[in-house]
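cache lookup: miss for this entity combination. No prior model stored, computing from scratch. Input as submitted by user K.M.:
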Amino acid sequence: MRWSWVLASLALLACASFPKLDLSAVPDGKQYPDAKLLTLLSEQRVDYFPGGKDGGPRARTTSRWRVKVLKPTELPPVRAWYSRAFSRIESVRGRIIQPDGSEKALDVSKKSDHSVFDGSILFTDERVVVVPVPPVPVGGIFESEVVEWRDDVRPFVLQEVFGGSNPVAVERVVATAPKGWQLRWRVLAFDGALMEPAVDEEDGRTRWTFERKDLAPIEREPQGVPTWALSTMLAVRLESWLQDGQEKTAFKTPEEMSRWLAGEYAAQAAPTPEMVATVREVLQNVPDTEEAKAKALYEFACRRVQYCAVEIGYGGWIPHPAKSVHETRYGDCKDKATYLHSLLTIAGVKSAPTLIYSHDGYPRPFQLPSLGANFNHAILAVHLRSGTVYVDPTQRAVPFGELSPSELDAPVLELTPEGAPLKTTRGSDPKENAETQTFNLTLSPRGDVEGRFAIEATGSRARDYKLRVIYGTGKVTKWLDDYLWLKDAQLDDAQAADVTDFGAQVSLAGQAHAHRVLQRGAGSVALLRLTDVVRPSAVLQEAEGRKADLVNRVNETVTTEVRLTLPAGAKVTRRPRDVLLESPFGAFRLSWAVEGGVLKVSRQLVRAKRLIPPPQLNDFNAFNTRVLAAEAEPVVLELPALEASR
Amino acid sequence: MRRLVLLLVLSLVGPACATAGLSSSFVSPDVLTYDKAKYPDDAAVVLYRADKTRLDTEGEDFTHSLRHVVMAIQGEGGFDLAEVRVPFGSNQKLVDFIARVIQPDGSTVVLDAKSLLSDTNGEGERDSNAHFFRFPDVRVGSVLEYAYVIESPFIWNQDDQDTLGSFPVRQYEFELTASKPLVLETIELNSRSPIEVRSRPNGDHQLYFQLRDLPPRAKEEWAPHWTFTEPRWAWRVVAYKTNVVTYDWIRDWPDVVERRGKAFFVEKDLYEGFDVRVDYSGCADVACKVQRAQALVRSKTTADAKWSREEPIAQAFKSGHASLTERALMLKKLLEDGGVEVWLAYGTDKASQQRTPTFPLWSQFDHLFVYLPKQAGLDAPMTIDPHCQFCAPGTLTARHRGIPIFVFRTFPVLGGEDTEGRWVTAWAEPATPSSTLRVTHRAQVQADGAVQDAVAFEAWGAEAVSKSRDQPSEKKVLRQARDAARRLSPIASVNTASFGPCTAEKAECRWSAERSLPVMAVSDGNRWLVSTSVLEPHADSLFDAEQRKQDVHFQGDDFTFEEVLELEAPPGYRLVNVPRPVTAECDAMSAAVKVEATEKGARLTRSLTRRVGEWPKALYPDLRKVAAVFKDARHQLLVFEKR
């Protein structure tokens, strides 16, 4: 599959074949005063033909991007990604139209073709062709076109998120196929704009056109959903076609895809004598219960097999053999899930590799039963007699039976020989994700504090601590310096009192100090706020104009206990009232006490709702405002005179 | 610390003999033993690293470059080091590769070169390819070793070392070997290790040095650029010398800039189609012409593109989006059209990276200036920073004032072109206005303890240019004002916010907000207690760390922050216990805080000034004291008692 530069050169000469633009009809974009670019046209076209790999269909995709420059800016280079296993670039071309209407072709001789270095994947057979774009004046138009061929369309799904960071005049997806071939699509209209394609015929072929116009820029909201969930997301793929005179179909249901993939995975899961020996070794001294065995083997797979992704061709969807994972002790998510599946099978525990979309707090709905849609991660469903437990062997510090926040509330597809339906993982429970930070501090008359702190955490609140200890050794102290709730803390030391990689709870402790945590003037009176010592519990997010849910990654319980020993002779002349708040979003309590020269503060916030829809945001903010207002109430202190204390 | 510079002039006599290129072999066992207790905080230790280069002109020209790394994995944070990527150009090839993993029990697995994953699709001149591999079965206690040699079908003419990364390095070796006709020069920086000069039996010459026990780089605020602290090397081919003739390659500074000089002074491509003209009528001197040319370029272009971008200036001018280099060339062309003699000059911003004035090296430059030699209508040479939006002719901002710059011009000669140049100091008057941010609060204590704060921000100089680059929408202005207010109080609200006027040319920018900051004041009997945390959290965590490992390098420009809080107390109350004024100063920073009683309440003023430059670590305690004076102003409590 080689970059076809002869064709590209011809394409260069064929600049004139770009459609002639009526510049007087081009929108001026004045309704978008902040925008630097107006996308006049963003079009993805896929044309299906017979004659692909093994007699199956093949596809030609054409990507067109036409933009008008509204403010001085630098246009990104044209980038054409291709996979050496599945596709080849037929042509890349472009043109620049000056404000006076004169045209110049993009100089594609300046192209470069690079290996793709993906942060999370060691090796993929993808490459990218890059063609730099010269400066384009304000009022000028740049247009690019990339044509690519795919000879195997089985894993291919054309996905489009309508809209982007620039305003868009027209965005379009066009698919064509020989008459009688069927297309299947799914529209996820997060912005409420339902979309049906226009269907017509063109030269004996059926054409489906999905189009939207006049799209405002998509702006991700603070603590918000991903950009795809602010728009309309379309997935299109070939559903049925004629091959050797017979009708062939893609996966019709999730169950069918589950069944097919289960077969492919099973072929890679064959155990070896070495794996059998390893299972025997790992399960030595492990109680003979299926849960204990599953837990021990899960922890072994997490600890002893490192994450490393090598994805070549179908290696993006089909795992490497468990034998090779066992030998090299590395693999990606599906490799590790399959390997653990093999080990569990040897141990007599049932399980099924499972596909999931690892999210950032906002689960992604299922689109189409196709390899190229829906999922970006693989985990394992462990079928214990007591019930199914999902585990992720790529995690390094998540106890057996728990999932990381990115895998909660998410649709999953277990891969089983009989074909499994879609299921959903469980949600998060504030009781499981809990953290308590305790500070025993001494206040100096100047307002400095020093003393000891202790941390106890479970669930997702424990995970960061564990990972720091596992990956960072002594750097935990440096990290806690920033992370500790003690504001402006300087840590003198921090030790992991009880932190094990798969333990349910962690404990850390250490010594810290901080400067000037109170307000004090030239006299003896001083103000001390809880949030001058520890960080506020919440952040207010604007409700007005909010388009989508506010996302809390997990439900959780965070508790702070502060015992502040006051300087000798100091008096608390006023302290805030205790507060107890309850709401559908959670609960908050804050209490104050002074005993024997010690100011005691106890605070707890329970977050009980992860996704807050815009209509509920005012109520949510009202709850948070009451929380923050309570935390802002100061204690009034009378302190010894500074001179006397020196 | 800069070290000995070696000039190796090679023998003119003696037959050349064919030599093999570089190849690699595993290190000896003694390299693998080390004292783990010395590295308690590091997930990995680089036990050995070598960068070796061979330049071979016998027969077909080629360059071999070898990278050899041995790493001990001490914690799981080092596991990522097991993934190795070897990038190379489409005209280069991998000619040697070895790799092994030594397990904690001493067992060793040697990797086969066949196990490399290869991506070699790129064939074009600009294309790149790569090999990839992953060490198997890596554990805490494993030692990973790999070495590879890349062959290029040409002679490299210079190279300099990249950073060694974030892990400590126990032993580092540098070796440069060259065929006899090549005259080499190398430099070692920030190190005291001697450079050995070796002669090989075949007549080749070799430069070699080794370093031991390099600590990992400390992460600190205002840390020096890594080039100031990491031991590193650079080399270049000075000349190619035959029995008959010597061809200079990179002998001196003019050679370093000659390629750019040719493009900027001799060739026409970059100027093609640039037909913009400046009206110089009425200009009696060069300064007037500079002012007019600058005004045009500044009004028609921003300078946001990568500084070294070189697109034809007509296109860049029309697009309104130019690079520093393109702006310099626009000014050059416009001034030459006005009859002004123009040179160009390369330099390095203060504290931006280490300069090596004794070693001609392109990579140290990060700025291009327009330089006007003394000429009719100009009594003294003038250095122009094309990036500066507000510098008047004959002025520069602090980051450039007094720096050495290499001024040059290139001109055609018979059969080619020649470049002349020299180092000069960029003397200039300070550009005005200097970079300043002033914040003025007109605040009023409310009966409920909230403080109503009408806050105005005024920026000048580079600070204003930076702020005016992004003219935000009303929505964004409000959001930014809200975010700023909530850094003072998480329940703050903003009533109004406005932005502007902001002009880069005048280097002035203003924005303001009216906000409410709840619970900033407390009524306590017959007094009001008002917190000064209504002040901006500027520099709130500056130099919090009690210890400092490195010098302090203030980059950018000199900068002054000024803040005035005019506080109106509830009627009938007056300020008591007025704190004494405090000031602190050292060479690099100064601060002052003053509180005064006013008719309606109190006025608090504070300022912090930072001077660009490289300041020694010994100054750190003084810097902390200055910072503390400024920061403590936000922790004051103003007490107002009933009159």
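stored under new cache key. The CA atoms of residues 477 and 497 of chain B lie 6 Å apart.
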